[in-house]
Design a protein that fits this description.
Elements lengths: L32 H5 L6 H15 L3 H14 L4 H13 L3 H14 L4 H13 L3 H14 L4 H13 L3 H14 L6 H13 L29 H16 L3 H14 L4 H13 L3 H14 L3 H21 L18 H18 L3 H14 L4 H13 L3 H14 L5 H12 L3 H13 L7 H13 L2
């Protein structure tokens, strides 16, 4: 039996907004529609005001946030992120119609602004405008096809409109994508709606390839290595004592991969994520640990941690589900996550323009903001390859594989790195693995190139 000390929770930082990680499935994204359609490019002063607004919003200081967002808009009218931020504040203050207008303006200013479309969908539902909500959720799910929440909102909107032919596939898409254990109550509700409309959830085998996997692989898919798990847990414990929380999270993640049923590894991974402010991810790990143990003390400690984390999430306004609301609810601030996404997208754009040094800076910022964002590590690996820093690139791709073992993009990048470093046998194996992969992020053109490169290395 595990001894008690390890499952006491580490202190939550009250100054850190929680962020729920969503793993993006695609590696290369298109240039922002805002760049193509001329959305307002914020000045340095507007950006600074916006950041102050995000910080205030994350701490529940709504009036300060509104003032900062208005400063940003006064300096740069039409600034999409500030419009969305101000809308989030007004929504929380009960000014739903005003918020609706701001979300609509933000989406119009930047048609690729995912959060604005999501928030527009929810605000429209609150006002009973299911038609607008459906249109907004349609756009959101186009931009973020792996996110389950958008499909639930879409299904609800079409059901309210009486459009069964559209509500059914939306609910089916939600169920196919929903992997979070704590959200299974909404899976049951979606299933009930489907049955009421004479339909059933899709079979697992026909679930869309774009479905986002859970952050950690299922225990049965992992080869058990208890000795490695124990070693990495010791590493994580030492790193936690040194307050190197991000590195500790990776150590505990390694341990959970080495032994998928290791309760201590999962519990401590939750602790590390919570200290970093990733409360949603922490809750998911504690719930997994709880499901794998019958130890009442551990279960009680996990419950206390989960309750505390959910309270922080509600306080920060970043997780509607933490307040018991259905998926697709909002608006969500997710300030840390949003800033990480922006930095990631900027990094990818800089790679496209061959500004590899600038890309490295942006992608490092993204990783610092959201240290479990797989695609940021993949993209930073590409930036490092562009700078001929092959060892650093390999390290980034290996981290990406630790975070998402089933993904394909890191395999190709790691193969390229190893080939450049003269590690031909390892490179050949990785090219062959990429060529044989059926992962959703695999690209047929690169598969053919991988086959050719593997053959040349024989």
């Amino acid at each position: 039996m595990l001894t008690r000390p390890w499952f006491f929770c580490y202190g939550f930082r009250i100054d850190t907004p929680g962020a729920v990680m969503v793993v993006l499935r695609s590696f290369v994204i298109a240039l922002s529609a805002a760049m193509l359609l001329g959305a307002a490019e914020p000045s340095a002063a507007a950006r600074a005001a916006f950041v102050r607004g995000e910080s205030a919003l994350a701490r529940g200081r709504w009036d300060d946030a509104a003032t900062a967002y208005r400063e940003a808009l006064a300096d740069t009218p039409g600034y999409p992120s500030a419009l969305n931020g101000l809308g989030s504040v007004l929504f929380r203050k009960g000014q739903v119609q005003e918020a609706l207008t701001l979300f609509r303006d933000a989406a119009k200013a930047d048609p690729g602004f995912k959060m604005a479309w999501f928030n527009l969908g929810y605000a429209a539902r609150k006002t009973g405008d299911a038609a607008t909500a459906a249109q907004a959720y349609e756009r959101y799910t186009e931009l973020e096809p792996g996110d389950a929440d958008g499909f639930y909102g879409l299904g609800e909107s079409y059901r309210q409109l009486g459009q069964k032919d559209k509500a059914i596939p939306a609910y089916q898409a939600y169920i196919a994508r929903e992997q979070r254990k704590g959200e299974q109550v909404w899976v049951r509700k979606a299933t009930e709606h489907l049955k009421a409309m004479g339909a059933e959830p899709l079979a697992v085998a026909t679930a869309p390839a774009s479905a986002t996997p859970s952050a950690a692989p299922a225990a049965e898919s992992v080869t058990s290595n208890p000795a490695l798990a124990a070693s990495r847990i010791r590493d994580g414990d030492a790193l936690m004592k040194e307050r190197r929380y991000r590195e500790a999270a990776f150590a505990f993640l390694d341990a959970s991969h080495a032994d998928g049923g290791h309760v201590e590894a999962l519990f401590k991974l939750g602790n590390a994520l919570a200290v970093l402010g990733y409360y949603g991810q922490a809750v998911a790990q504690w719930e997994r640990a709880t499901a794998l143990t019958k130890d009442a003390a551990i279960q009680q400690s996990a419950k206390e941690n989960i309750d505390r984390a959910r309270a922080k999430m509600v306080q920060a306004g970043v997780s509607p589900q933490a307040a018991g609301q259905a998926p697709g609810s909002g608006p969500v601030a997710d300030t840390t996550r949003a800033l990480a996404r922006r930095a990631y997208e900027q990094g990818v754009q800089r790679i496209a323009s061959k500004d590899f040094s600038g890309a490295l800076t942006s992608l490092t910022q993204s990783i610092q903001l959201e240290p479990m964002l797989t695609v940021a590590f993949v993209a930073r690996g590409s930036a490092n390859i562009g700078l001929r820093r092959y060892a650093e690139a390999a390290a980034d791709y290996q981290y990406a594989l630790e975070l998402e073992p089933g993904s394909a993009s890191p395999l190709y990048g790691l193969a390229e790195s190893f080939r450049a470093m003269g590690r031909t046998l390892e490179a050949r194996d990785l090219y062959e693995r990429y060529a044989a992969s059926s992962s959703a992020d695999v690209r047929p053109q690169l598969q053919e190139e991988s086959r050719q490169k593997a053959a040349r290395l024989r």
